[in-house]
Amino acid sequence: MKKFLSIITAVLISTFAFAELHPTYRIFEISINGLLGFDQNLTTVEDILVPELVIDLPKIADGFGKKGFVSNSQFEFDFAANLNLNKNLKIGTYVNTDFSGNFEIGKGFWDLLAYGNELDNPVVADIHVNGQLFMNAGASLQMGFKKFTFRANPSIYLPLVYIPNPTAFVSAQANSDGKLIATAEAYFDAYSCLPVDIFVMSKEGGGIGFHTGDEIMESLQSYLDPAEIFSTLWSNGGFDIGGEVEYELFRFLDIGGYMNMPLKPAYLKQKFSGSVKATAEVNDLLAWATDQSEEKENPWSSSFESNDISFSQSNFSVNRPFRFGCEACFRPIGKWLTVRGQLGYAARNPFGEDFDWKDNSYLEYYFGLESRLFYILGLKLYTSYQQEAFTQGFGLDLNMRVFELNFNISSTGASFVKSFKVSGIRGSLGLKFGF
Q1: What is the pLDDT of residues 414-432, one digit of tens each?
Q2: How far is it, in rounded angstroms, from Cα 325 to Cα 235?
Q3: Contact yes or no for 162/132 (Cβ under 8 A)
Q4: From the CB of residue 269, how many other CB atoms can be counted at a distance below 10 Å?
Q5: CA geometry: angle at 115 spanning 114 and 117, to 5°?
Q6: Is 203 exposed, middle or buried (0-12, 13-18, 19+ CB in 10 A)?
Q7: Measured at the alpha carbon of residue 326, what is the angle toward residues 325 and 330, in degrees to the nearest 5?
Q8: Entry pTM
Q9: pLDDT tens digits for 244-278?
Q10: Which of 243, 255, 242 is closest to 20 using CA atoms?
């Protein structure tokens, strides 16, 4: 009995002895991680999996917030190698690619669909679109001093594609003669580190066309040269640095703060500009539905046009997101249970040419319960608002010492309530190898 109690006591002591905000389990490891996600606030799985699908436009319109329809998409892939000598000295390097996109249609448009408007007067709602694809590489260094731990992550980055929010709107009008007219129009600029005309061409008359795969690969040959890649990254790339400070307040409680600060913007030299317009019209739909003749005309008509398509040189500056915040880990019974919390602030393209405090900045939070059983099996439940999406998720870690699998799956949504009802999904998979 005494021997058994001694073993249990040793296990419990060991779980408290190495408390860290972000513990590691191997001296040397190589990791590969991928993430894919999409969410929206129009519908949920619950709305679709019904015996009879009913489209209730007033319910849809009333369920939207001020932004109206919102959808987000994310993709990430990273590769890292780390040497964890001990808690007081860890070094590493990494390469990362990440994409994020956002699309919104203002609430006024949905109110029109649900409740209509005064005849012969259009209702206009804004459309918001943005997207960014980054590639970055960096190093990490962690050092400890007494109860403090310091981490630094300098990195160099290059936006492959950046699409700032265009001037775009959608308008709808119901005429007294029964005709319905809807128009969407956008004036856009897109920026890239590569000439966009490698992929896209301007047709006669102002349209847009695409080159063939062979033409694209031939044009890309000169840009795939390692010396050309290094030259582009060095001359046009940006630089930022991330930092964290951690303090062991008690054996069971760690607190810390973090920040990611862009120091030098990246510059995109290639610009793709133009405008697109789509129009849909419906003639007297009621008359068409009640017309019993065999040769009645189709009431629907639509058109699409693109104009003023141009390719030019630019010097558009882009920064990686600015982030700062605080976090804490509470371990009431060691690594058997970890309560993790984080609260922070983030801004897209801070100090950039298209930055707006209202549209480009937001608060972030994370709260999770985590448990690790004998360092082998890890489980977690969490709720968060990150990358402008609400998340309710579950995670599973399987650690076999030389090999570790990390899996996360979550229900996401552009609204907090719908994130519980699966209006989007986000999944990630990570593999670690080492000793």
Answers
A1: 888 888 888 899 999 999 9
A2: 31
A3: yes
A4: 17
A5: 125
A6: exposed
A7: 155
A8: 0.78
A9: 999 999 989 999 999 999 999 999 888 888 888 88
A10: 255
